[in-house]
Amino acid sequence: MKQLVLASTSPFRKSLLEKLAVPFITDTPHTDETPHADEPPERLVRRLAEAKARDVASRHPDALIIGSDQVACVEGRVQGKPGSRENAIAQLSQASGRAVNFHTGLCLLDSATGRAQVTVEPFTVHFRSLARDQIERYVDHERPFDCAGSFKSEGYGITLFSALEGRDPNSLIGLPLIALVEMLEKVGIALP
Asked: Which CATH class is domain 3-186?
């Protein structure tokens, strides 16, 4: 089996990939993540997932490279990682009582052939109507400053939602494992 390389520094993506019980290493992609003018979220995450994989492939010439990228959108506006308490509170206030659409780009690149499988996995989170004090308590408890949308669905963030909608809850955390298993099968890696 070819070396599997996760093109990410995310501990969340690494933990998700460990679920598949396949050996892999990680490598840091050096990719400009600036959106292009008027670039739709789906196109952005598709482009960045592949760009991250191709960057890492330059250092691993005979490997299978996994690239991924994610954005959250509230009423068509992209929300990035908040980076601070104030921004997290603002993002969750915008999401309160609304649906937040996540787009997670996934790329599996064979660096020897240059062939890439790329997809975008959608997932929707329906938020409860939340008072500011609820949002502040959540942010102070979980400190989700490095998470798109300002929450961790695998943790205390579940208290913020009224419903989750999508084929793979792992995509919400940043790596759509169902789609990845399908891609791996196409290159001869059958799981389980």
From this structure: alpha beta
